[in-house]
Design a protein that fits this description.
Number of helices: 25
Structural class: alpha/beta
Strand content: 5-15%
Shape: globular
Largest sheet: 8 strands, parallel
Strand order of the largest sheet: 6-5-17-16-15-14-13-7
Helix content: 40-55%
Number of strands: 17
């Protein structure tokens, strides 16, 4: 025992003093890479990695830490049969280290690999602690990501800035949102909702962001920091006399104001913002700015002047930096960017596999752009992707007119920790020079994910069925993200989705997911296999529920009350079965989400209730009664999770069936949702 303890301490000490790539490898392999995997940095103008064997050791060469980390991930997946995934972020190497049959060399076709969406910081990340963040940064490096969005702690920048403008802490609390709603506050959609924050939150998140930025830079990752996009509190005109343009509303929420570029204070505010940002977190090679997001009013705004002023302020902070902007709905306004210098702007084609804005004759003209997969909306749960479109469109983009300024690949999901197969695929695109067969790729991926030399025939057939259905959604499907589970919807006979802008219309037979679920259940495997088996069974249950509800609607049309009652009972029992299934996976339980929120409060009961309330509201009512019901935000972030199914979705449907079939009073769904939020916030 003493020998083992001494050995373990030695390993930890060596990890602490090792080069960043060696430390990363030791962390993700639980110390088992030390002395067994050798990294060599080789200068190169193009990102590359090469994997080979030397004696009983693995040698991974690359031009920087991110390239070598990408090589490590490639080795783990395709040689060692180990897949580092969100459900399993560290795994030990086998006792006998597998070596590649021959050297494996890959070169990146594009220099930029982007990651994250403003929304991810609310739908997935608002309550992450340091340990979870450090694991995610390792995951980023393993997947070749070299420019992730990094918003944590920006509320401290705004607190410091507004204090210097004479705002009290109470007034600042009315402007800054609660932790679950930072994304929309940052995108100029709302202010104050979910707050005010405890004073400790600002300092704690600022310290966390310093560690995040330090780890990223240690690995050669350039964080994309939030730049100044013209936002100011909407009361700044009354308080300080600044000239602002009417910001309007977003889903019922009053927006923050856009400070007019004609106002004499514009440059002063912008420079003060960058000073506070730099003092806390340093400068960056990239800054993200998205003015006028989702319907933001441009009335009275001189767009060319606004673009020039925002760019100039950023360049004063760091003359070598680039502006990163989302292509989403009407943004970026052509008038705002057309006069900007080529090379200073990076445009994220946010939804390349569906909206396909890049297919315009010349893409984004003179400006560089990134091919991005959005995939997930609201953190909703569901198997979803467009495997063939994602791959084929990328190679089409590389050979088409837009290729002249194709500068990178990215993923811009609203929520993560789902559909790992799609994230693995998108981040391999830059490292595969030629178009490839997606089914062969899927087989190799699954063997690596499950640690198998070959897949059982029925499992392979089940996954091929998924690849032809849920993972190949038509581009013209009328909805956002996954086919939504109707278990999570506010009940109605003709309900068509769980969220306002989604869809629950099945474009495939539910037999395909049932086939895959049965095949997975017939075997056992590693942790990744168990996770996927539960996830696929969940999808099969949800698809069966959707079909049942359609059947009930048809029986209602036919006046067959007996069939309606029988199917409603089956539907309710299926919700409970779904709850029991998902309770076996911590990542699929609502308590994991709520407890993470509460844990950040330490011993402060008021903060604990506030954070848990934020977490509970986001995935149910989202906003107040106006935003939820008139603004359409209720259930936008619905989660098909254990406990939430049993505690809210089941009672909603039971109350509906009792009202419609048994004469019980008509339920008030918003009240039921608020009651659940209140109860779970106080636990």
């Amino acid at each position: 025992m003493r020998i083992f303890l001494a050995l373990f301490i030695c390993i930890l000490a060596s990890v602490a003093t090792a080069a960043p790539i060696d430390s990363l490898a030791a962390r993700v392999t639980e110390g088992t890479s030390v002395g067994r995997i050798v990294f060599k940095e080789i200068p190169s103008k193009t990102d590359f990695f090469e994997i080979s064997g030397s004696g009983n050791k693995v040698v991974i060469e690359g031009n920087n830490a991110v390239s070598m980390a990408t090589g490590l991930n490639w080795y783990l997946k395709y040689v060692a049969g180990i897949h580092i995934s969100w459900n399993n972020l560290t795994q030990p190497l086998p006792e006998v280290l597998p070596l590649p049959d021959k050297a494996i060399r890959r070169q990146a076709s594009v220099p930029h690999r982007y990651y994250l969406n403003y929304c991810t910081f609310s739908y997935s990340m608002p309550f992450w602690d340091e340990d979870r963040w450090m694991k995610e940064i390792d995951w980023m490096a393993l997947h070749g990501i070299n420019m992730p969005l990094s918003l944590t702690g920006v509320e401290a920048v705004w607190r410091n800035l507004l204090r210097k403008l004479g705002y009290s802490d109470e007034e600042i609390g009315e402007f800054v949102s609660g932790p679950a709603f930072f994304a929309w506050w940052q995108m100029n959609n709302l202010e104050g909702w979910g707050g005010p924050l405890p004073a400790e939150w600002y300092d704690n998140q600022a310290e966390l962001q310093k560690k995040i930025v330090a780890r990223m830079k240690e690995l050669g990752i350039d964080p994309v920091l939030p730049g100044y996009a013209g936002m100011v509190p909407r009361n700044i005109g009354d308080k300080l006399g600044y000239k602002i343009d009417d910001p309007g509303k977003w889903c019922g929420f009053p927006r923050p104001a856009f400070l007019s570029t004609a106002d004499e204070h514009f440059d002063t505010i912008a420079d003060l913002y960058y000073k506070e940002l730099t003092d806390l977190f340093g400068t960056s090679a990239y800054y993200s700015m998205d003015p006028f997001h989702e319907g933001g009013s441009t009335a009275g705004v001189n767009l060319p002047e606004a673009g020039a002023k925002l760019m100039a302020a950023m360049k004063r902070a760091n003359p070598q930096s680039k502006w990163v902007i989302q292509s989403w709905q009407a943004n970026p306004r052509p008038a705002m960017i057309d006069t900007l210098t080529a090379g200073d702007l990076l445009i994220l084609d946010l939804y390349s596999d569906k909206d396909r804005k890049w297919r315009r004759t010349e893409g984004y003209g003179k400006h560089d752009w990134l091919y991005c997969m959005l995939l997930n909306f609201g953190g909703n749960v569901g198997l979803h992707g467009r495997i063939d479109t994602l791959v084929n469109d990328f190679y089409d983009a590389r050979t088409g007119a837009a290729n002249a300024h194709l500068s990178g690949v990215g993923s811009t999901p609203e929520g993560i920790e789902n559909n790992p197969v799609m994230f693995e695929l998108v981040y391999e695109l830059p490292w595969r020079e030629e178009r490839f067969d997606t089914r062969s790729w899927l087989t190799d991926y699954l063997k690596g994910r499950y640690g198998l030399d070959s897949l059982p025939d029925d499992v392979a057939a089940g996954w091929n069925a998924l690849a032809a259905t849920v993972y190949n959604m038509p581009v013209d499907y009328n909805g956002q993200g996954t086919v939504e589970s109707l278990f999570c919807a506010r009940p109605a006979w003709d309900v068509r989705s769980a969220s306002t802008w989604g869809s629950s219309k099945l474009f495939y037979s539910p037999d395909s997911t049932a086939l895959a679920a049965a095949a997975m259940a017939a075997h056992t495997g590693n942790d990744n296999y168990s996770y996927d088996s539960a996830d696929i069974q969940r999808q099969a249950n949800a698809d069966r529920g959707n079909a049942l509800l359609r059947g009930m609607a048809a029986a209602r049309e036919a006046g067959d009350s007996a069939a309606m009652i029988a199917m409603s009972n089956e539907f309710l029992n299926l919700i409970l079965a779904q709850d029991s299934l998902l309770s076996t996976q911590p990542d699929m339980c609502v308590d994991t989400w709520l407890d993470a929120a509460g844990a950040l409060a330490g011993n402060d009961p008021a903060a604990r209730e506030l954070y848990r309330r934020n977490a509970a509201m986001l995935i149910t009512v989202w906003g107040d009664s106006i935003a939820a019901n008139s603004g359409g935000l209720h259930d936008y972030s619905h989660r098909e999770w254990a406990c939430l199914l049993r505690e809210l979705y089941y009672p909603r449907w039971k109350a509906f069936f009792d009202s419609e079939l048994r004469g019980a009073p008509k339920p008030d769904f918003y009240r039921m949702e608020c009651d659940w939020v209140d109860r779970r916030s106080k636990e």
